[in-house]
Amino acid sequence: MNTQAEKKYNKWIVLLSIAIPAVVALLFGVKLKTLGFDVKPLTFLPPIYAGINGLTAVLLVVALIAVKNKKIKLHESIMKVAILCSVAFLGMYVAYHMTSEATPYGGSGAMKALYFFILISHIVLSVVVIPFVLLTYVRAITNNIERHKKIAKIAFPIWLYVAVTGVVVYLMISPYYK
């Protein structure tokens, strides 16, 4: 067990777990046009970042299969790509919202309630999953494998839910894009 090596990352985990959602929330409300930048809306991004969410979900499942089959190096590589995909998603998501107006959901009734349930759970869990993913990663790179496995059992389903619901949210709102 290598908890000493793990401890040196704890401040970063806490800092990033707070800073990422705070910066995203702050930038979500910033429109580059109102700051004087002459930028066109990046309306082509939503299907791309939804696709990246879908790819992340596939990568997570493939990484799980790899580790179950004791293909540890493959698992490590796939998980690093999944993390990079999540970072790319986040950058594109913020860029889209800094250049484009939010699209209101146009459905009604039960579908509207379902949409908002999925959206809100997606947003909440996308914040909750950050420290779990970071802690899981740190436990892996510090070779604290037993503790890595324990936290991965929590992080994996949350991250998979966030990735899948990101696609679902896109599919539900895409008919209402202007």
Structural commentary:
The protein is mainly alpha-helical and 178 residues long. The protein has one domain: Cytochrome c oxidase, subunit III, four-helix bundle (Four Helix Bundle (Hemerythrin (Met), subunit A)). The chain is 78% helix and 0% strand. The protein has 6 helices and no strands. The radius of gyration is 18 Å and the shape is globular.
H/E topology pattern: HHHHHH
Structural class: mainly alpha
Broad shape:
globular
Main sheet overview: none
Judging by the overall fold, what is the CATH architecture?
Answer: Up-down Bundle
The pLDDT mean sits at 94
Tally of individual helices: 6
Look at the structure and give the CATH class. Answer: Mainly Alpha
Oligomer state equals single chain
- CATH H-level superfamily: Cytochrome c oxidase, subunit III, four-helix bundle
Radius of gyration: 18 Å
Q: Could you give the count of β-strands?
A: 0
Strand percentage, roughly? under 5%
**Tally of distinct domains:** 1
Unreliable segments (pLDDT under 50, ≥5 consecutive)? none
Topology at a glance:
Layout: H1 3-7, H2 10-28, H3 45-68, H4 72-99, H5 109-141, H6 145-173
Properties at a glance:
mainly alpha, 78% helix, Four Helix Bundle (Hemerythrin (Met), subunit A), 0% strand, 6 helices, 178 residues, globular
Briefly, what is this?
The protein has helices at 3-7, 10-28, 45-68, 72-99, 109-141, 145-173. With 178 residues, it is mostly helical. Helix 2 (10-28) runs antiparallel to helix 5, helix 3 runs antiparallel to helix 4 (72-99) and helix 3 runs antiparallel to helix 6 (145-173).
